[in-house]
């Protein structure tokens, strides 16, 4: 399985902070398209901070706020969007050291996924997570994430510690307004007695044609 991301050391990290990347972050970043109030983390020490790690682009290197797993080194994070998203990449800053997740598994449009069934559910894509203080970019397969309303991330274990830490999650891609289905009204031309409840007091004594 391919594991594409841009974690490539100090030389690449310096390039990450040039003006071109700043512009890309501002134009391509989906931060403003996340339904922040409904971001949820399972097995986290503080659920309030779940939405706080989906930070704006300029705060991606801030380590003041982080999400830490609670009972063990697994964590699930669900991120809903306010419209339809064509996802291009996931950005993750984690760690430090052995508190870095070993990998991340991605599930689009799986809002009810929890620990009881996640291990038996095949992810659409997964990546190894590299240790480091910079932000790793993980490019997804566009055809598999072309029209999604939410993204669930499962971190199945650490790289040696009893828990994991996530400092930042970012999402890159395109957003479009969610299309609403038109309301179609169907009028009955003739009442069908079989489709209606019996009227109280009539004992169901309706006359109907004999077959």
Automatic annotation (TrEMBL):
Domain PITH: 19-191
SUPFAM superfamilies cross-referenced by the UniProt entry: Galactose-binding domain-like (SSF49785)
Gene3D superfamilies listed in its UniProt record: PITH domain
Gene Ontology CC, one term: nucleus
InterPro entries named in the record: Galactose-bd-like_sf, PITH1-like, PITH_dom, PITH_dom_sf
Family recorded in the similarity comment: Belongs to the PITHD1 family.
Name of the featured protein: DUF1000-domain-containing protein
């Amino acid at each position: 399985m391919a594991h594409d991301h841009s974690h490539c050391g100090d030389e690449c990290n310096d390039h990450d902070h040039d003006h071109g990347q700043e512009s890309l972050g501002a134009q391509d970043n989906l931060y403003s398209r996340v339904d922040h109030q409904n971001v949820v983390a399972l097995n986290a020490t503080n659920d309030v901070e779940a939405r706080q790690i989906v930070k704006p682009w300029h705060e991606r290197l801030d380590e003041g706020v982080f999400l830490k797993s609670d009972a063990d080194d697994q964590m699930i994070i669900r991120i809903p969007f306010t419209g339809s998203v064509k996802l291009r990449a996931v950005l993750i800053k984690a760690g430090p050291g052995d508190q870095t997740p070993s990998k991340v598994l991605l599930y689009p449009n799986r809002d009810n996924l929890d620990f009881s069934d996640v291990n038996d559910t095949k992810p659409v894509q997964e990546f190894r997570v590299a240790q480091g203080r910079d932000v790793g970019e993980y490019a997804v397969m566009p055809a598999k994430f072309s029209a999604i309303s939410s993204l669930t991330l499962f971190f199945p274990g650490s790289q040696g510690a009893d828990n994991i830490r996530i400092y930042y999650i970012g999402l890159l891609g395109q957003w479009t307004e969610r299309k609403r289905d038109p309301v179609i009204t169907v009028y009955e031309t003739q009442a069908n007695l079989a489709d209606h409840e019996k009227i109280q007091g009539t004992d169901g004594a309706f006359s109907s044609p004999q077959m």
